[in-house]
């Protein structure tokens, strides 16, 4: 198996693995502007202490902001947030002009109407291949009872009733 073939197969497997969709945000400490991007490389790590992680491509223009700010917010998106998901997945430089958000008491940009938001302090950064893994401790958390937004086979959408087992 060639390296190229392995990568193609890997990508096909991963696009067939349904995941939740999140937006991660922070503040750029040098210019105090909000920064954010859509990610699906997010997971819980520990309950005690409450830890989460997400991954950022080494080539991301947002990388230094997440590194230098020392804090971030993870937004688990709701099924009605496809538009904001697409905005934060784009290379658009004015993402926050196209989203409803506020600055939290902890100084983080919070995108409104998410299913859940976790405000975290950065506790570890790990280099892994072409990405960096950021581990954060959840310091503040909020939940809104909504249906989640999923990513599956290159598309985003709500959970279908066909997926629900009784």
UniProtKB/TrEMBL annotation:
Cited SMART domains: Flavin_Reduct (SM00903)
Domain Flavin reductase like: 14-158
A GO MF term: riboflavin reductase (NADPH) activity
One Pfam match: Flavin_Reduct
Keyword Metal-binding set for record: no
Alphabetical keyword list: Oxidoreductase
PANTHER family, per database record: FLAVIN REDUCTASE (PTHR30466), FMN REDUCTASE (NADH) RUTF (PTHR30466:SF1)
The protein's name in its UniProt record: Flavin reductase family protein
Organism: Neobacillus rhizophilus
Lineage: Bacteria, Bacillati, Bacillota, Bacilli, Bacillales
